[in-house]
Amino acid sequence: MSAVARDDWFRSSGWGPEERELFEAKLARARGDNRRQYMRLKALALVGGAGPDERVAARELFERVIAGENQLQAAMARFDLASLLAQEGDDRGAAAQYRACVAAEERLNGSLHTGAELALAELILRAGWSDALPEAQRLLEQAADAGLTFKVERWRWFVARARLAALQGDRGEAASAARSALAELDDQRPDFARHPDVGLIKADSATVREIQQLAAGD
């Protein structure tokens, strides 16, 4: 195994026998405070590999982090696991992890903000869980209170708010939120001049058409 591979033992996207053996050996020698972070970073790298075996291994590593005593890393791992489960179509499992992440962030008294509130609200709306619409509304309020720093966050928030209002039968609010979403989409100025590529909106055409229709009151 190359020296570069050994240096990237917790960032490589492979999980073959040699890579797994190296990872576990390095992990055993790492400082206790750092082990959960290394496991979470390795899991994220495995998700990027996108193979079925790597995704299974990523879930197992996220669960090891969650079972540990590092509350900060456990909360982040819950968010990461929720995102993975949502990608795989397990909406109920993803929602459970997002909810646990939101609860963990509340216990951490503002020292961590993953965006789980917004992600969970989006999932509820996408899944069409009508009984959870009041929860989605509370989550969007929490997300706004926590702050929407980047343009893409504001776009996602207004899109979710427009969809929620439409489901609630409030066409006026849906149109207003949709117009705000389109204003964010049309504004090409970066949020931070020194980092022009950070937080940009990458909207799919179907969503844009949907929001344009809501903005028109259709």
Q: What can be said about this structure in brief?
A:
The protein has two domains: 1-110; 115-218, Serine Threonine Protein Phosphatase 5, Tetratricopeptide repeat (Alpha Horseshoe). The chain is built from eleven helices and no strands.
Q: What attributes does this structure have?
A:
218 residues; mainly alpha; Serine Threonine Protein Phosphatase 5, Tetratricopeptide repeat; 11 helices; elongated
Write up what this structure looks like.
- This protein has two domains: 1-110; 115-218, Alpha Horseshoe (Serine Threonine Protein Phosphatase 5, Tetratricopeptide repeat).
- 71% of the residues lie in helices and 0% in strands.
- It has helices at 3-7, 17-29, 32-49, 52-66, 71-87, 91-107, 116-127, 133-146, 151-167, 171-186, 205-215.
- Helix 10 (171-186) packs across helix 11 (205-215).
- The chain is elongated, with a radius of gyration of 20 Å.
- It starts with a helix and ends with a helix.
- The relative contact order is 0.07.
- The mean pLDDT is 92.
Summarize the main sheet. none
- Strands, count: 0
Terminal CA distance: 60 Å
Nearest-integer average pLDDT: 92
Count of DSSP H/I helices: 11
Proportion of residues in β-strands: under 5%
Radius of gyration: 20 Å
Q: What global shape is seen? A: elongated
Total domains: 2
Give the oligomeric state: single chain
Fraction in helix: over 70%
Please mark out the parts with pLDDT under 50 across 5 or more consecutive residues, or reply none: none
Which class best fits the helix and strand makeup? Answer: mainly alpha
The H-and-E topology, N to C, reads as: HHHHHHHHHHH
